[in-house]
Amino acid sequence: MTSADEQLKKDEFYMRKALQEAEAARREGEVPIGAVVVAGERVISRAHNLTETLRDVTAHAEMQAITAAADMLGGKYLRQCTLYVTVEPCVMCAGAIGWAQIGRIVYGASDEKRGYQTFAPRALHSKATVTRGILEDECRRIVQDFFRERR
What we know:
The chain is an alpha/beta fold.
């Protein structure tokens, strides 16, 4: 198995954990987006959207996961961490990801309407790497199903 295959396997493993968080959000009536932060092959935080629960428009999965990870590590910079999130971060979250200096971002589904790549493609830290499309269909489907059920 090549190192690229091994990395894909790891990315899928952690994205499934983010999908578990998205499912928890869905059960709570939140938009089903989940995130996990990994450091040294260990999940150090996991979160999902809490905007309805907290009545806070900033309570996105990424924001919750970044705050928990920084608390866990005892510092605001997460350079050695990877953020896995089921949907492309919005501009607000991309800004926070950039300020936290997260070293690697992995997301599932793109967000053409609100994603950072459309509005602020340089928001992430200049040294950050991005991997897109991991378990993309599953990540897209959970959000589409959620909104379809609401209509």
